[in-house]
């Protein structure tokens, strides 16, 4: 029996921990880190760290050979239309930061999924699965496989996103990730907003999404003690630095 995909594990509500990875890590170093069994997938940040596409291709290829899925936080909210381009480089999942408008989500969904769900363009020799689970599939079979495989996440970092999360968390979105630092900045800019803390905002979002299959993630590293608090809020996805 095949192992469940990362997306299926997320949807099933498993408690998962992402390694906050670096594109400079070698395949052997990554294998050594993974041997501890601490992490479930990798999180790469292209919003606040330098990168090259060549690095991404080589890193994702090494990770796939090790059976590891990699999520990318894309460089900018307005690059949501480029998620297909980043996925062509080998990532299994994408995170769109600082979402506020439904149109951003529409772009992300359109270019994360192949038809009939989206309009992602066909191509890219480095795509996830071509050398593994989906090897040998024809175009339609691969598209169907991919549409059940990809993980699309959006990041909540403003009171506007908290208030409108039901409009933003559209079908095709699997994860809502909290960005507590930028959300704190935004709360400070909205002194009359009725929710006065990041925790209050997180609880509100969790309540709004409780009847959906969308799962909640923390966008910053957490300790074991902190995770207990967030688990009670409904968060099931966490991040940690390599130990």
Summarize the structure.
Helices cover 37% and strands 17% of the residues.
Keywords:
243 residues; alpha/beta; TIM Barrel; eight-stranded parallel barrel; 37% helix; 17% strand
What would your notes on this structure say?
There is one protein chain. The chain has one domain: Phosphoenolpyruvate-binding domains (TIM Barrel). The chain has eleven helices and eight strands. It has helices at residues 6-11, 27-34, 53-65, 83-87, 102-112, 139-147, 159-163, 165-168, 180-188, 198-208, 224-233, and strands spanning 16-20, 41-45, 70-73, 93-96, 151-156, 175-178, 215-221, 235-240. The protein has an eight-stranded parallel β-barrel. The longest helix has 13 residues, at 53-65. The model has no long low-confidence stretch (mean pLDDT 96).
Secondary-structure element order, as H and E?
A: HEHEHEHEHHEHHEHHEHE
Please identify, by name, the CATH architecture. Alpha-Beta Barrel
Write out the CATH superfamily name.
Phosphoenolpyruvate-binding domains
- Largest sheet report: 8 strands, parallel, barrel
Whole-number total of structural domains: 1
Give the number of DSSP strands: 8
Radius of gyration: 17 Å
Summarize the topology.
Layout lengths: L5 H6 L4 E5 L6 H8 L6 E5 L7 H13 L4 E4 L9 H5 L5 E4 L5 H11 L26 H9 L3 E6 L2 H5 L1 H4 L6 E4 L1 H9 L9 H11 L6 E7 L2 H10 L1 E6 L3
Parallel strand pairs: 1-2, 1-8, 2-3, 3-4, 4-5, 5-6, 6-7, 7-8
């Amino acid at each position: 029996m095949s192992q469940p995909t990362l997306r299926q594990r997320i949807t099933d509500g498993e408690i998962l921990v992402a390694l906050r990875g670096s594109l400079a890590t070698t395949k052997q170093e990554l294998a050594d880190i993974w041997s501890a069994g601490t992490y479930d997938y990798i999180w790469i940040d292209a919003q606040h760290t330098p990168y090259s596409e060549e690095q991404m291709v080589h890193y994702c290829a090494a990770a796939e050979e090790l059976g590891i899925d990699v999520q990318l936080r894309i460089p900018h909210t307005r690059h949501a239309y480029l998620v297909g381009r980043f996925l062509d480089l080998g990532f299994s999942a994408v995170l769109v930061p600082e979402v506020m408008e439904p149109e951003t989500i529409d772009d992300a969904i359109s270019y994360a999924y192949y038809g009939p769900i989206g309009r992602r363009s066909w191509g890219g020799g480095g795509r996830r699965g071509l050398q593994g689970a989906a090897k040998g599939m024809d175009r339609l079979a691969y598209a169907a496989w991919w549409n059940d495989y990809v993980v699309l996440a959006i990041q909540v970092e403003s009171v506007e996103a908290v208030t409108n999360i039901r409009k933003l968390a559209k079908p095709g979105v699997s994860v809502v990730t909290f960005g507590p630092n930028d959300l704190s900045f935004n709360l400070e800019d909205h002194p009359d907003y009725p929710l006065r803390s990041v925790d209050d905002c997180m609880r509100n979002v969790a309540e709004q999404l409780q009847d959906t299959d969308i799962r909640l993630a923390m966008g910053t590293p957490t300790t074991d003690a902190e995770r207990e608090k967030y688990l009670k809020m409904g968060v099931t996805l966490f991040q940690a630095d390599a130990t």
